[in-house]
């Protein structure tokens, strides 16, 4: 396995862990458990960002920046939807 494959595998693992920590945060039964999952989630998100930046620096991962207008357009779209 070369460096690119190892880094991509590491990124996939961290993304998977973020998903698990998010679910743990949402489904936790007590504030203490929720906070533990939430802290782990944010640490994993920090690590994920760090790995993605390293991969991007080497040209192995493309990070697409989104224009602020598109972000606002998406926010408005979801804010205007009613959840019934």
What's the rounded overall pLDDT mean?
92
Largest sheet: none
Alpha carbon gap, first and last residue? 49 Å
Order of helices and strands: HHH
What is the domain total for the residues?
A: 1
State the low-pLDDT regions, or none: none
Structural class: mainly alpha
- Write down the Rg: 17 Å
In what range is the share of β-strand residues? under 5%
Number of strands: 0
Helix content range: over 70%
- Total helical segments: 3
Please state the overall shape, judged from the principal axes of the Cα atoms: flat
Write structural notes for this entry.
- The chain has 84 residues and is mostly helical.
- The chain has one domain.
- Helices cover 76% and strands 0% of the residues.
- The protein is built from three helices and no strands.
- Helix 1 (3-27) packs antiparallel against helix 2 (31-57).
- The termini are far apart.
- The mean pLDDT is 92.
Task: Please outline the helices and strands.
Blueprint: H1 3-27, H2 31-57, H3 68-79
Helix pairs in contact: 1-2
Main attributes?
mainly alpha, flat
Quick recap of the structure?
Helices cover 76% and strands 0% of the residues. It is mainly alpha-helical and 84 residues long. The chain has one domain.
């Amino acid at each position: 396995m070369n460096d690119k494959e190892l880094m991509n595998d590491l990124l996939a693992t961290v993304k998977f862990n973020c998903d698990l920590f998010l679910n743990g945060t949402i489904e936790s039964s007590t504030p203490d458990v929720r906070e533990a999952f939430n802290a782990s989630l944010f640490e994993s998100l920090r690590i994920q960002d760090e790995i993605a930046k390293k991969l991007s620096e080497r040209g192995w991962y493309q990070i697409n920046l989104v224009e602020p207008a598109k972000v606002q357009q998406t926010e408005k779209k979801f804010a205007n939807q009613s959840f019934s």
